[in-house]
Design a protein that fits this description.
The complex is a heterodimer of chains A (294) and B (169). Chain A is mostly helical and 294 residues long. Chain A has one domain. Helices cover 68% and strands 0% of the residues of chain A. In chain A, α5 runs antiparallel to α17 and α8 packs antiparallel against α10. By secondary structure, chain B is an alpha+beta fold. Chain B is globular, with a radius of gyration of 25 Å. A 7-stranded antiparallel beta sheet of chain B has the order 1-2-3-7-6-5-4. Chain B has a domain of 113 residues: Protein Transport Mog1p, Chain A. The chains are: A mainly alpha (294), B alpha+beta (169). The interface between A and B is large, with 37 and 39 residues.
């Protein structure tokens, strides 16, 4: 049996590397993301209700909806979790032990920055995962890119933070400000066989629309191409630069400029922002539905 | 001297023992344990197979106008939700759900003496107003900002095509 949804939301961390890394992005979307944790807290924040009996009723309906597998919520959480674990190799605990120690820079030497190709595939697959998870949660058919785009313009709170983190941690830091065009052209030149060899793709490919890897690749390319403009205007409107992001990260990770290349890899392995904010989005939408249905 | 040494040994032992007890203790009970047990059993479902698809409910919602934007935000089996925003800020949520999946939601309207748009209405909590249409579909307006009042909720519920919805089978 999977872990109950109230437990998942109650167990969301209030601190640690993921939360700190996300907080470092507040300057991109000031005040938009509060780290909302706790199942009952989420119910109170979403509905504004304070009556305990009513909160209980809303919570019970939310638990029932989540547990009904046909409703897609469990699959969405699985997607958010899986797309991130595909690239992670070392646990946050291992890193936490090293931070602040003299051996930290030595530890960095053991991390190899990802090649641009793997990074580009990761970025494209993560974006498509957002599209598929969005549809699992909100119910718009899986191949409706138009609805997704309309909703993307309307993204707020933790969903917007997830996109800001995707653009920053998986786009600008590893690939530079021109990351969107770069990733798309690299992804386009990737063969379906190469795609099948990518760990991130492999982990979630069964839920990407399309018959085989060739069709799935087409779907990913189309989705990425459609959201490219949104990502590019986000970067230019907020003036997101590699240097700017790195200087904010320096506030909590100690590294020298010549090690900046490794920061992308480091974040990739230890910052689980997709799962963290994905679960927050899911909980919010689930509560919205539950309160409407009781 | 002896007592200091004893304390030096005793305190860490007690601390580690209590930590172990906490770490090994079973999960604290939750107010949702019962519903979790009931709904995680095989064959249990929260949404009826007979529930109307959300895509069929969208047409009964009010449209954007007078400075308010109404945007569809969820569409699931037996459920559709649209968000109401003014000046880019979400002020309310409108929804229709098919109570065939959860008949207890429809029961509360039996005691209602108030009507909105000719249908039995209830106030729920501080921020919600609902009506039951055709003894089956629950239409709700919920405030998400203090500027959207109880009166606004009643007014917006009347903007739905309630009579059209009452004939939906």
């Amino acid at each position: 049996m999977s872990k109950p949804i109230f437990k998942e939301v109650d167990d969301l961390p209030t601190g640690g590397l993921t939360v700190t890394a996300l907080k470092s992005l507040d300057f991109l979307i000031p005040g938009q993301w509060q780290n909302l944790t706790g199942f009952d807290n989420t119910i109170r924040a979403v509905t504004g209700e304070t009556d305990e009996a009513l909160i209980q009723q809303i919570g019970e309906r939310a638990v029932a909806l989540y547990n009904d597998k046909s409703q897609g919520y469990q699959r969405a959480l699985w997607l958010y979790e899986t797309v991130e674990s595909g690239s992670g190799l070392l646990g946050a605990a291992a890193l936490a032990n090293r931070i602040g120690q003299d051996s930290f820079l030595g530890f960095l030497k053991n991390i190899t920055p990802k090649p641009e190709k793997a990074q580009s595939i990761d970025l494209c697959v993560k974006l498509v995962t957002e599209l598929v998870a969005f549809c699992q949660i909100n119910g718009i058919p899986g191949d409706s890119i138009g609805d997704f785009l309309a909703a993307l313009g309307d993204y707020s709170g933790e969903s917007l933070m997830r996109m800001a983190a995707l653009v920053s941690f998986d786009g600008v830091i590893p690939l530079g400000p021109e990351f969107a065009n770069k990733a798309l052209s690299i992804f386009d030149s990737t063969s379906p066989q190469e795609l099948e060899g990518n760990q991130t793709y492999k982990s979630v490919q069964e839920l990407i629309p399309g018959g085989g890897s060739s069709e799935k690749k087409g779907f990913i390319t189309k989705s990425f191409d459609s959201t490219k403009n949104w990502m590019q205007s986000f970067v230019s409107a907020k003036n997101v630069t590699r240097e700017g992001l790195l200087s904010r990260l320096k506030g909590f990770i100690d590294f020298t400029d010549d090690k900046a290349d490794y920061v992308g890899a480091l974040l990739d392995m230890n910052v689980k922002y997709y799962r963290h904010t994905g679960l927050q989005t899911l909980a919010r939408r689930l509560v919205e539905r539950a309160v409407a249905e009781i | 001297m002896v007592s200091i040494r004893l304390r030096k040994v005793f305190v860490p032992v007690v601390v580690s023992l209590s930590l172990m007890t906490v770490a090994c203790a079973p999960e604290p009970p939750s107010r949702y344990d019962q519903v979790q047990k009931e709904t995680s059993q095989k064959g249990s479902s929260a949404v009826s197979k007979e529930a109307i698809n959300g895509s069929k409910l969208n047409r009964y919602f009010p449209k954007s106008g007078s400075g308010f934007a109404v945007v569809p935000s969820q569409e699931k089996k037996g459920f559709a939700e649209h968000k109401v925003s003014r000046g880019g800020k979400n002020v309310a949520v409108l929804s229709i759900n098919d109570t065939i999946s959860n008949p207890s939601a429809a029961e509360k309207y039996q005691q209602s003496s108030v009507k909105i748009g000719g249908f039995p209405a209830v106030e729920q909590g501080q921020n919600g107003t609902g009506v039951l249409v055709g003894d089956r579909f629950q239409v709700k307006a919920q405030s998400r900002d203090p500027s959207f009042t109880k009166q606004d909720r009643a007014a917006w519920i009347q903007k739905f095509d309630l009579n059209g919805l009452s004939t939906l089978k």
